[in-house]
Each structure stands twice: as C-alpha cells, then as structure tokens.
Amino acid sequence: MQENPFAYGFHSIPEYNYENYILYENNREAVSDSREYISEDSSWPLFYLYGSVGLGKTCLAHAMANLFLENNPHASVRYTKIETLVSELIGALHEENRGKQGEIQRLSDRYGCETDFLILDDIQYLEGKSGTGEFISEILKQRLDSGRKTVIISDRTMECQVQKIPAFSESLRKCHCAEIKKPDEGERLDILRKLSEKDPVLKNHEFRTETLEIIASESNGDIRSLRGSLLKLAAYDLLMQG
Length: 242
Prior knowledge:
Blueprint: E1 2-3, E2 11-12, H1 28-38, E3 46-51, H2 57-71, E4 77-81, H3 82-97, H4 103-112, E5 117-121, H5 130-146, E6 149-154, H6 158-164, H7 169-172, E7 175-180, H8 185-198, H9 209-218, H10 223-241
Parallel strand pairs: 3-6, 3-7, 4-5, 5-6
Antiparallel strand pairs: 1-2
Helix pairs in contact: 1-2, 4-5, 8-9, 8-10
C-alpha cells in the first residue's frame, strides 16, 4: 500500500488497477465507461456506479483513482464511505457547538473544492438522513460547478436513490450511470480461472479444473464469494501440507 502525499484520505493500492481488474460480459460496459470518465474529453459531470454487493464496485473506483493519479500526479484524491463522512459532520457540529466556528465550512470545502477526485461509497447509507443528505448535496453542487471528478457508489439504482434521498435528486439526475451485474455460471468459471492466475494471494496456488467447476455451479455469482471460496481452499491445502 503506497500513500500519495497529495491524496487526502486515499491510499493507493497497486493491485487495484485496470490490468488486474477481472473483466466479464456483465461488467465490460461499466469498465469502459469508467475509463472514459477519467479521460480529459469526458463531458459527464458525475459518475454513478451501482450493482449488488461483492461485484467489485469499490475496486473499480480505486482503479479509476489510481489511473487519475497516474495522469495527474499532483492531484488530491479522497475516498470515503458515507458513514465516515456522516461521523465527520457530527464531529464538526459538535466542535461548533463548543464554540469552534467554521468547522462545517472547512469540512464542506475539504470535500467540495479542495479534492480533485472524490469517491463517495455506500451512498445508500444516507437514506432517512435528510440533514446529512442536504449537506452532501451542497458538496456535490460545489463539485459540479468546478468540474471536479466525482464517483458515487451504491447498491441501488439511481432512480431508487432519487426517491429515497430527495436532497440528492438534482445532482443525481446529472450522473452518468454504470451498472455492474452478476456473471452467469460460464462467466463465473472464467472469473475463477482469472482469479487463480491474477490474484496476488492465489496466483501461486494450483486449483483443479473440476474444483473450479463445482465452485462456479454452486456460487450465487458474487465475485467476493468466489474469491473467498478459493482462499478457503488454498488455506485448507496449506494446513494439510503443514
């Protein structure tokens, strides 16, 4: 893990890049769109990435950030989960109540105009939190006005989030949406093969084809669970050898 001195709240993980990202039919369009958003020619103001849990949304967003930093070495990048940002806002409110003025504005500027590339993960966490939703909506407006890159990650569709987080409706409707879908059984087998070849933890371990076929047929298509199954097998084999 390498820290970028210009990247607030972001640590560059070398493995999270486009070269190592596992491609299959149901994520190719999202990956292609993500590359286009990073390019200087992109006219998309915001990038909304959604799909079920465990399909690699956060990994893809980090690959985007790493490529952005590659092209803009002195840029400021920030990755944060919405839950963390909510905690920061509560802390800023607490400080202002104690007489330390300007904390909320400083927090707003940090995420709004002082960060060149922002990743907001788990946006669905804002559902039912109208006050925080309005605060983050103001941050997004700042970023839209200044043309800064923003990636929003959710488990839900944009239409669903617009309904559940009304404060976001104006900004979210300006997003370019990219969906990552689950792979089918044939794709799952190919993903398992690629994981066994590319994954830094798994690539030195050999897996029988029959074993991969069984995992692919019994899996629900979640890439995280596919990798988890391989890790368990690798750990078991190492224990047996020991």
